[in-house]
Amino acid sequence: xxxxxxxxxxxxxxxxxxxxxxxxxxxxxxxxxxxxxxxxxxxxxxxxxxxxxxxxxxxxxxxxxxxxxxxxxxxxxxxxxxxxxxxxxxxxxxxxxxxxxxxxxxxxxxxxxxxxxxxxxxxxxxxxxxxxxxxxxxxxxxxxxxxxxxxxxxxxxxxxxxxxxxxxxxxxxxxxxxxxxxxxxxxxxxxxxxxxxxxxxxxxxxxxxxxxxxxxxxx
Length: 219
Ligand SMILES: *[C@@H]1O[C@H](CO)[C@@H](O)[C@H](O)[C@H]1NC(C)=O
Ligand SMILES: *[C@@H]1O[C@H](CO)[C@@H](O)[C@H](O)[C@H]1NC(C)=O
Ligand SMILES: *[C@@H]1O[C@H](CO)[C@@H](O)[C@H](O)[C@H]1NC(C)=O
Ligand SMILES: *[C@@H]1O[C@H](CO)[C@@H](O)[C@H](O)[C@H]1NC(C)=O
Description:
Blueprint: H1 2-40, E1 46-58, E2 71-79, E3 86-89, E4 92-98, E5 105-111, E6 114-116, E7 121-129, H2 135-143, E8 148-162, E9 165-166, E10 170-180, E11 183-185, E12 192-193, H3 205-212, H4 214-218
Antiparallel strand pairs: 1-2, 1-11, 1-12, 2-7, 3-6, 3-8, 4-5, 4-8, 8-9, 8-10
This protein binds 2-acetamido-2-deoxy-beta-D-glucopyranose (NAG) (4 copies).
């Protein structure tokens, strides 16, 4: 009996230790899973242009303006769609271009870095001063009923955070083209999503397809 008691006394702390070890192992595994999730997360914040206004191209109530307004008004939305992970943005570089290709930069703007919680959205609305826009051609084009295209490129680095784990900095580089008509506003009513990768202009899409499917192109 006394021997059994001694055994029990021995077994008891060992059992506690065993339970403790199990808890620690579960805890460590949980931390590792969070760490892996944070670092392998491929979902990027979504960026879109809600508004884009070029007053110089508004020929509806500006038809007599002798001086060109060099400013572009923009309204950008940055959304974190993740419900477990928050995002830390570095300084965001915005580059505005005239035309669909990034060949004629006309304006730069930086948005201060910020922190964005889970499932949160942020809006940045401001004005950028442009330089070197061929306004004469642009005004001519919209006056004739055609549209003028601008391009916006966004570049920053983001870090993802879950609990107290931070991922490494990841590049976020997205862009979009915006079509403007004689109202000075974007033709597309809906917000324009900025996407990564080079968007092939319409006339070269066929070529891009031919490159992607050389077999078909040969026919
Ligand atoms: C345009 O400007 C001229 C000279 O300043 C003026 O006579 C004319 O009424 C203006 N037209 C409009 C539509 O504002
Ligand atoms: C606009 O139309 C006028 C007259 O038809 C033409 O001379 C001019 O080149 C056109 N401008 C553009 C940008 O298409
Ligand atoms: C943003 O612009 C600054 C200044 O030109 C540059 O140092 C930085 O590397 C740029 N950031 C990104 C993500 O391109
Ligand atoms: C220009 O675009 C705006 C916004 O989409 C639209 O309301 C307007 O009708 C367009 N104007 C012309 C002349 O197409």
